[in-house]
Amino acid sequence: MDHAAVLALFDRELREDARPDGPDARVERIGPVVRQTAPRHGWNGVVWSGLGGAAEPGERREGGPDPRGTDVDMVIAAQIAYFTGLNREFEWKLYGHDLPAGLGQRLVAAGFTPGPEETLMIGEIPELRLDTEPPKGVRIVPVTDRAGVDLMIDVHEKAFRADASWLRHQMLDRLTAAPDTMVAVVALAGREPVSAARMELVPGTRFAGLWGGGTVDAWRGRGIYRTLVAHRARAAAERGCRYLQVDASSRSRPILERLGFAPLTTTAPYVYVP
């Protein structure tokens, strides 16, 4: 896999040409920024910014037009004003290769709070090692209705120790309005939900995203996470996808590397609360 070429394809298909990730979301390009506006339980934020050639405040380029409209701080302030006007908390999703250098520091200076850094990992599906099965007594079942969503949310809240009501709303919306754009699964040990994950498909692109993979404490280290990755990878291949994309934590990165995923850059959420 040509890492630079795949990263450029990722930027173009999933960021610069982003599609709404929910039935009530809207994506628009405003100057150098691509942003999504969604209901409160959806994802609101900046997914891409073309600030690589932006000017520093007060700078004029010799022989060129007045660059004040592309000053980095002005662009940041405009997004704050827009989402604050909607009374929306929002995220500026920043990647390690985004320009200009120091954009993260500028966001912090403007009032954003950085979240944990993760690794953007991408795997070319035909090259992945997917020969894994769940441990004895565990079965993988699809999430197709409200009862399945409830099982998935139960796992999510136990595994990540965080409220997941926002995810319940998002999943129910998607299952109702666009079920073909999501594959969600729960691992059951008997009747007990012990692990869960979802995959989001982006029509018109070669990518599918793996999200929310989590396992309750008592069942970690038994290969369930690998099994859920393999299950979703096979489902993506059946739907014509070529690449899988994951924002990997430090815990999941080594597992994904053993399966054949490659680390391409870092990513971190910068969150602004009005």
From TrEMBL:
Question: What SUPFAM superfamilies would the database entry show?
Answer: Acyl-CoA N-acyltransferases (Nat)
Name the top EC class: transferase
Coiled-coil ranges per the record?
Answer: none
Chain residue ranges for the region called Disordered: 51-70
Q: Which GO terms describe its molecular function?
A: acyltransferase activity
N-acetyltransferase domain spans which residues? Answer: 138-274
Biased region (Basic and acidic residues) positions are 57-70
According to UniProt, the name of this protein is: GNAT family N-acetyltransferase
**What species was this sequence derived from?**
Streptomyces incanus
